[in-house]
Amino acid sequence: MESNPELIEAESAQNRLYIKRGHVVNHDGMQQADVYIEDGTVRYVGSGADFVVPGGCRTIDATGKLVIPGGIDPHTHFQLEFGGTVSVDDFYKGTKAAVAGGTTTILDFVLPKKGESLLEAYDAWRVRADPKVVCDYGLHVGITWWSKSVRDEMKILCQERGVNSFKCFMAYKGLYQLNDSELYEVFETCKELGAVAMVHAENGDIIAKNVTKLLADGVTGPEGHELSRTEEVEAEAVNRACVIAHQAQCPLYVVHVMSKSAGIEVARARRRYNATGIFGETLAAAVGTDGTHYHDQCWHHAAAHVLSPPLRPDPTTPEFLMKLLAQDDLQTTGSDNCTFNRNQKELGLKDFSKIPNGVNGVEDRMSVVWEKGVQTGLIDPQRFVAITSTNSAKIFNLYPRKGRIAPGSDADLVVWDPKAVRTISASTHHQACDFNIFEGMKCHGVPEFVIVRGRVCVENDLIRVAEGQGTFLETPVYPSFVYDAINGVKHEETSDEKHARNGLQNLDFHQKSSGHDLDIPDPYALPDKYIPGPALSVISGDSQISTPHSARGHRPDGTKNMQESTFSISEELDKSENRSCIRVRAPPGGKSSGFW
């Protein structure tokens, strides 16, 4: 049978892709370079003068653009049964929306019902996802109850099913919540297996009491959701989870840090334990909007913003959390995408505790983080890559296959236009939900091309994907990024990696702001004192942000230079006219004893 030359050429063009004249950005460096892709893998990154482009190869001209690793969303809930309904973004619509926004890998959560086999729940999630995903995906598994059989199944999941992370809940009393003793045993098991423990940190016992009191007092609207689980309820649980994990000698990943006080507790723990074993995630929602929406006069608008932990009414929270990301007190940004439509949210029309929890974000995460981080001058493109892709790949042991542009890496790339502008709207997004919490936000930074395993899936707003084209990713145990430090294996940080944090490791933590402060004397010491006060502020001079053709290009008007600035972390927790002061003393030398 004779071969068809035209067909062969077409197949070659699909399997081979050449991106020229782009500015390649990894977390630890930027370079003007061309990228050659073949059969879904990056084969070459370097000067075009040193590479001969094969025949039958499609070429994309990325002049004036950034070429970045595809985003990794470490926190999604597609097709999730919750609160008597199912989230409307299934694994097809959800991953399609992710790709539209520049995310090429997602990590979803298997959440067994109380008493359900972890293995059976895992199998059910694979049945839902495998035929539908349009990008690669992995799975965390929730530990929603505890017994010897659960412990045994955790081992099987790690050894045979490609799972290396388990999420515990300190909230949702009567549904998912574990007590402290159970948390300790789960953390011990994770450490024994070389897995990463994850935690939803809120004090579920306090929340349950508050919900009862608020409803009894006639507070039934969406504003009751945040009132029942205020910042300190989140912060207390974050601190407790970090202490339990430290006692169990287990690495801990705190999901969806939503408040300034909770972010401070993650920062404190990382400094107590010498930046080892504690990792923090915040959400696009947390850096992109705030909890003032819970008091909107339109019930449906307010309810559409309900998630747990909730958005915070302090409008300075988003900038505060972005600065924690900038200085590496938080490491990743997820979406916690769990979308419900108007009629589903109405399940809680007369009782806020019955409003299905969840918001959108999987499609807009990359643009929102760019707008709130890079466009404002708080971070540079390298740190953007770190907090939207690389750090998740490292923590969950997918790096450097994912989260990097280098020979041998999967060809998950985005040609990112830093000058393009788009306005977010539910009328134009690709998600199945009828509301967008970022409605009307103008974002600089738009994915022009999105490449998934070498296939051009997004081209100038045109999306070409097929159900099932993605594959399941096994996440091996003992990720070196997590366990090497715990086990005393040290790696020298390169100068590029230090620069990738945008110079914020040199900030003066003694700088006072507006009369209220949280002093952190150095990046690895305990806070000396904690006085509730207003938001973290920045005192700075002029600045420039990175552009495709120079490490430091033109800065948008009004942005601040974090390279030359100092700031102090402080936090607004006014509960009355009086302010309390909690004093914490660090051991000699500012570092803690213990295994970390």
TrEMBL record:
Residues 541-596 are annotated as: Disordered. InterPro entries: Amidohydro-rel (IPR006680), Hydantoinase/dihydroPyrase (IPR011778), Metal-dep_hydrolase_composite (IPR011059), Metal_Hydrolase (IPR032466), Metallo-dep_Hydrolases_sf (IPR050378). The keyword Lipoprotein does not apply. One of its GO terms (cellular component) is cytosol. It is an enzyme of class 3 (hydrolase). Keywords: Hydrolase, Metal-binding, Zinc. Its cofactor is Zn(2+). Its EC number is 3.5.2.2. The modification N6-carboxylysine is found at K167. Carbamylation allows a single lysine to coordinate two divalent metal cations. Residues 560-569 have a biased composition (Polar residues). It catalyses: 5,6-dihydrouracil + H2O = 3-(carbamoylamino)propanoate + H(+). SUPFAM superfamilies: Composite domain of metallo-dependent hydrolases, Metallo-dependent hydrolases. Residues 66-456 form the Amidohydrolase-related domain. GO terms for molecular function: dihydropyrimidinase activity; metal ion binding. One of its GO terms (biological process) is pyrimidine nucleobase catabolic process. It holds the Pfam family Amidohydro_1. Homotetramer. Belongs to the metallo-dependent hydrolases superfamily. Hydantoinase/dihydropyrimidinase family. NCBIfam families: D-hydantoinase. This is dihydropyrimidinase. It comes from Anopheles darlingi. The lineage of its organism: Eukaryota, Metazoa, Ecdysozoa, Arthropoda, Hexapoda.
